[in-house]
């Protein structure tokens, strides 16, 4: 599928933390083998073992990165520039989270998270192209060429999570101030294997949560005791860090591994908690936990993955929009011509009449394996226009449901064995942005609409969400590559 500057080109016949989860009736949490095993040499520099009631805190370890086989060669160039820039100004800098885990496993991380002793305002002053993003969980986006490097601050996290943690886990003993700051930050991680911190200058890996031992055993274990992690009752609602959940979901769906991430979430029973509407679709589709088959939702995200990469992410409004678009088709399957006309209208600034005229030229057959698409009918223009208007309204309605706790809680209601979830983590700004993306009218394109020039994706515009046309263009490509596959 190729998309040109003003229309679709054809080929050949187509013209154109704590807790993420809450209120679960019954949870049995056991460590899950999710990563390959690794032999780690026990080069322990310092260790403390503490018993806190029924919870035994893990032994602290500071290990030489050389003994773990970690070299700085796997750290991306833009990440090194940010690390060096902050280090030269006298700040402490560390790599933290999943990238450290990947380095230990000899994998190339898809993204690098940096945490520093600098205040975010000091990070902004250190780089010419840098801004603070996020209201509830602010971080810095540092622009190095076409790459965005995310930097968080110990001070920000300390202010946000200063309540309750010392009482929940216990204050560490015999540690200096830097140890305490690192340890406190690691408490905010979801799983122990993501609670590792790496100083690339001292070449030390800090493990306060027992993550290395869990990597050796190929286990995934929560940082805090499972009975606290999977808590029940209204108190857990106030403890939810929804911006952090949104950020983690964006890492999974916006960087080129969305299909695999959705399969993993489904496999381990987490999709029901995070995306209940999509989980209900899997259940109704008879999709088993380890199913190797595909479906339309997975195909949509597979085609999105082909356009993205760790250094070429999309804005979160794109994957949220795809979720809403697909759910609307699940609720009411549509004629392929209606879907095509809607997507062409979206691509062309909401111009329904233009989208309908372009869609009528399509001769390529659609994928008949998707039950979300009905058998094609010979719809006249007036009927087709009305169908597109109705479909656009249904997508907006689904988006509204996805951001309403009441409707989210009902998504899995017909499956009494499913865990209860009314979790809504999409911020209002994303909801409003997706509504703008899908705004369609019979009156022509929106005011000020500028058609996209060329087929090449501007990944800086797509990642930052500046303007809507790049997101609309990519959305249309993904849908057409799914509904009208080349092969």
From TrEMBL:
Residue span(s) of domain tRNA nucleotidyltransferase/poly(A) polymerase RNA and SrmB- binding: 241-280
Q: CDD domains from the xrefs?
A: NT_ClassII-CCAase (cd05398)
Record Pfam families: PolyA_pol, PolyA_pol_RNAbd
Poly A polymerase head domain segment(s): 93-221
Q: Name the Gene Ontology biological process terms.
A: tRNA 3'-terminal CCA addition
Q: Which UniProt keywords apply?
A: Nucleotide-binding, Nucleotidyltransferase, RNA-binding, Transferase
On whether Nucleotidyltransferase is a keyword of this UniProt record, the answer is yes
What are the recorded GO MF terms, alphabetically?
nucleotide binding; nucleotidyltransferase activity; RNA binding
The UniProt similarity line reads: Belongs to the tRNA nucleotidyltransferase/poly(A) polymerase family.
Q: Protein name, please?
A: POLYNUCLEOTIDE ADENYLYLTRANSFERASE FAMILY PROTEIN-RELATED
- Source organism lineage? Eukaryota, Viridiplantae, Streptophyta, Embryophyta, Tracheophyta
């Amino acid at each position: 599928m190729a998309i040109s500057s003003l229309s679709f080109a054809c080929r050949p016949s187509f013209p154109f933390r704590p807790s993420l989860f809450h209120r679960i009736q019954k949870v049995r949490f056991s460590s899950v083998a999710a990563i390959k095993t690794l032999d780690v040499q026990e080069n322990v520099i310092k260790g403390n073992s503490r018993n806190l009631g029924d919870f035994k805190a893990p032994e602290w370890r500071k290990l030489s990165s050389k003994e773990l086989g970690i070299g700085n060669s796997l750290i991306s160039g833009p990440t090194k520039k940010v690390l060096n820039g902050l280090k030269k100004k006298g700040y402490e800098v560390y790599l933290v989270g999943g990238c450290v885990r990947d380095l230990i496993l000899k994998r190339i991380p898809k993204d690098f998270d940096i945490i520093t002793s600098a205040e975010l305002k000091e990070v902004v002053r250190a780089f010419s192209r840098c801004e603070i993003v996020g209201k509830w969980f602010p971080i810095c986006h540092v622009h190095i060429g076409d790459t965005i490097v995310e930097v968080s601050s110990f001070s920000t996290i300390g202010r946000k999570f200063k309540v309750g943690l010392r009482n929940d886990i216990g204050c560490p003993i015999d540690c200096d101030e830097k140890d305490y700051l690192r340890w406190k930050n690691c408490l905010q991680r979801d799983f122990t294997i993501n609670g590792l911190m790496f100083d690339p200058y001292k070449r030390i890996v800090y493990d306060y949560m027992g993550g290395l031992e869990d990597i050796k055993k190929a286990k995934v274990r929560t940082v805090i005791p499972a009975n606290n992690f999977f808590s029940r009752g209204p108190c857990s609602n106030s403890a939810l860090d929804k911006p952090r959940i949104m950020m983690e979901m964006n890492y999974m769906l916006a960087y080129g591994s969305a299909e695999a991430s959705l399969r993993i979430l489904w496999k381990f029973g987490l999709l029901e908690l995070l995306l209940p509407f999509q989980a209900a679709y899997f259940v109704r589709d008879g999709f088993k936990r380890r199913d190797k088959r595909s479906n339309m939702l997975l195909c949509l995200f597979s085609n999105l993955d082909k356009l993205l990469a760790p250094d070429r992410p999309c804005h979160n409004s794109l994957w949220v929009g795809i979720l809403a678009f697909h759910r609307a088709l699940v609720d009411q399957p549509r004629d392929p011509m209606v879907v095509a006309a809607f997507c062409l209208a979206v691509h062309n600034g909401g111009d329904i009449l233009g989208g309908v005229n372009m869609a009528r030229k399509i001769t390529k057959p659609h994928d008949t394996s998707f039950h979300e698409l009905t058998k094609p009918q010979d719809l006249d223009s007036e009927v087709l226009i009305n169908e597109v208007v109705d479909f656009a309204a249904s997508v907006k309605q689904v988006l509204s449901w996805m951001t309403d706790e009441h409707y989210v809680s009902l998504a899995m209601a017909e499956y009494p064995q499913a865990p209860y979830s009314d979790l809504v983590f999409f911020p209002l700004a994303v909801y409003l942005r997706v509504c703008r993306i899908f705004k369609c009218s019979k009156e022509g394109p929106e005011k000020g609409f500028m058609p996209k020039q060329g087929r090449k994706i501007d990944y800086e515009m797509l990642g930052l969400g500046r303007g809507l046309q790049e997101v609309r263009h990519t959305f249309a490509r993904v849908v057409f590559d799914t509904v009208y596959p080349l092969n």
